[in-house]
């Protein structure tokens, strides 16, 4: 009987989460999609959690079990936030599928680079979106039109470079060939640049 009640409460959480998320994205202001969706999960977990603590129907659950349910819902909400809205918002893979569909179901493979360089960056306002996310995350500041890393930004960049260089696949399939190119994407980067800030 407890399992059924836990399942029903979890179903209620999913319904409340989807409702809160739908209302938030439709009528609310969103700074960063991931953070917004996590907030929605927290609101849904709090609403259903209050119900679980308040309703006599859940009296056979002890306090620890109720807290466990709320933690489980938060983990589920976090998985939803990352796996659905954030992936669709950020995914180049989904963009390519949508663009191919927009163009009647087919695009010449040798023109995809042009599509990405000339359309993707503009249509998705990619620079504006990513700068906004980094500003909201506290990893960059913009000072006199110069984008600078904060201490947090330096630490995350160091972690990312370490992880990329040591813990990403060394034999990753890229267009029919296995390569380690993505473990060091700057390997063949132009070293002399003229857009650095003073």
From TrEMBL:
Keywords: Membrane, Transmembrane, Transmembrane helix
Membrane-spanning segments: 32-55, 67-88
Protein name: Uncharacterized protein
């Amino acid at each position: 009987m407890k399992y059924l009640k836990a399942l029903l409460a979890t179903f209620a959480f999913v319904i409340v989460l989807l409702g809160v998320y739908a209302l938030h994205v439709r009528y609310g202001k969103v700074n960063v999609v991931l953070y917004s969706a996590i907030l929605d999960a927290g609101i849904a977990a709090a609403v259903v959690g209050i119900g679980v603590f308040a309703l006599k129907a859940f009296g056979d659950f002890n306090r620890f079990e109720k807290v466990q349910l709320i933690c489980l819902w938060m983990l589920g909400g976090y998985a939803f936030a990352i796996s659905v809205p954030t992936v669709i918002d950020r995914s180049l893979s989904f963009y390519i599928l949508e663009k191919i569909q927009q163009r009647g179901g087919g695009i010449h493979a040798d023109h995809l680079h042009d599509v990405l360089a000339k359309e993707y960056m503009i249509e998705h306002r990619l620079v504006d979106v990513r700068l906004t996310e980094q500003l909201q995350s506290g990893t960059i500041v913009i000072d006199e039109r110069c984008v600078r890393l904060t201490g947090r930004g330096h630490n995350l960049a160091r972690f990312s470079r370490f992880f990329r260089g040591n813990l990403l696949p060394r034999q990753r399939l890229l267009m029919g060939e296995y390569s380690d190119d993505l473990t060091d994407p700057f390997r063949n980067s132009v070293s002399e640049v003229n857009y650095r800030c003073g």
